[in-house]
Specification:
mainly beta, five-stranded mixed beta sheet, globular
Length: 307
């Protein structure tokens, strides 16, 4: 990453990818986590998130649907905190699911599923996959996280369509920009600690402002992963559509100290009657050379789609 994180060598592949539209590891301050993860929103604030005029994004159109990527695994747990002790800058996500076909009304009971890489670019289930550039082995972090489940989870939307996750700011891997994967499910039910049945209404990705990502990646433990970071403009999936394409609204917990964490907001406008296969338009395109390689452990499911 060499301090600048800019990559001008990767060509843009948006047309192939989208339909329609701190601190050292283990040393992140506990106070920072408590501040970032504090649930201080009232019911009125949660309801306001579902408003078409909310600053967290518009629900006047459907979210852009994209590929689920190569690192999806079935059976994620229903839980609010998905970190499992992984080190990184705290990130609280507040997502609101609304019906874009019916006046942006909240979709109560929707199951929102997210998954993303750790600070060095490794996904659970694929901990030997090379994230590109130069990074320590995932095992070098020395955390107690379960290698098959960390940084994956479901939350069930409340009456206002709101879910909240406690996680860390994701790292990056070649050739992608910083992102979080997301699916919205309806019609299923919680069973055995996970979510089963129903259908997928939306498969997408959440994105981060380049300036904020660059600021975060200069901190430990992110800075131990060096190489060429892909910006939004050069990403093969993000299509420049702002909130409707998954760009988060981010607010720092402390403006003068990014290591204390961020809060991310977005309204997900979906069609609860539609079903999404997770393939995305064009299958996400063909990654350039240097894309992550590796296979999940034999006791975990194989991914259902590839980027």
């Amino acid at each position: 990453m060499t301090g600048k994180h800019r990559n001008t060598s990767i060509t843009r592949r948006r047309a192939l990818a989208v339909t329609g539209g701190t601190v050292a590891a283990g040393g992140l301050a506990v106070a920072g986590y408590q501040s970032a993860f504090a649930d201080t929103a009232t019911d009125a604030e949660a309801s306001a998130t579902a408003s078409p005029t909310s600053t967290s994004g518009t629900c006047m159109q459907l979210m852009s649907s994209v590929t689920e990527g190569p690192y999806y695994l079935d059976g994620a747990l229903v839980r609010k905190d998905i970190t499992e002790g992984k080190s990184g800058v705290p990130l609280t996500l507040r997502l609101t699911v609304v019906d874009a076909t019916d006046g942006c009304t909240p979709v109560s009971g929707a199951a929102v599923e997210i998954w993303h890489c750790d600070a060095w670019g490794y996904y659970s289930g694929y901990t030997t996959a090379n994230p590109g550039g130069s990074a320590p082995a995932e095992s070098a972090e020395g955390d107690s996280a379960n290698d098959n489940t960390y940084l994956r989870g479901y939350q069930i939307a409340n009456a206002n369509g709101v879910v909240k996750f406690e996680t860390i700011f994701p790292g990056w891997y070649t050739p992608r920009t910083c992102h979080i994967h997301v699916k919205v499910h309806t019609g299923g039910e919680k069973a055995d600690g996970t979510y089963e049945g129903g259908k997928v209404n939306h498969t997408g990705q959440l994105f981060f402002d380049d300036d904020i990502a660059e600021e975060i990646f200069a901190l430990e433990p992110y800075s131990k992963h060096t190489g060429s970071y892909t910006t939004l403009a050069d990403d093969m999936v993000y299509d420049g559509g702002g909130a409707s394409s998954g760009l988060l609204t981010l607010k720092p917990v402390h403006k003068s100290d990014p290591s204390k964490g961020y809060k991310g907001f977005l309204t997900l406008g979906v069609d609860p009657d539609a079903e999404n296969t997770g393939a995305g338009s064009g299958g996400g395109g063909t990654p350039p050379s240097g894309a992550p390689t590796g296979a999940p452990p034999t006791d975990t499911p194989s991914p259902s789609a590839s980027s």
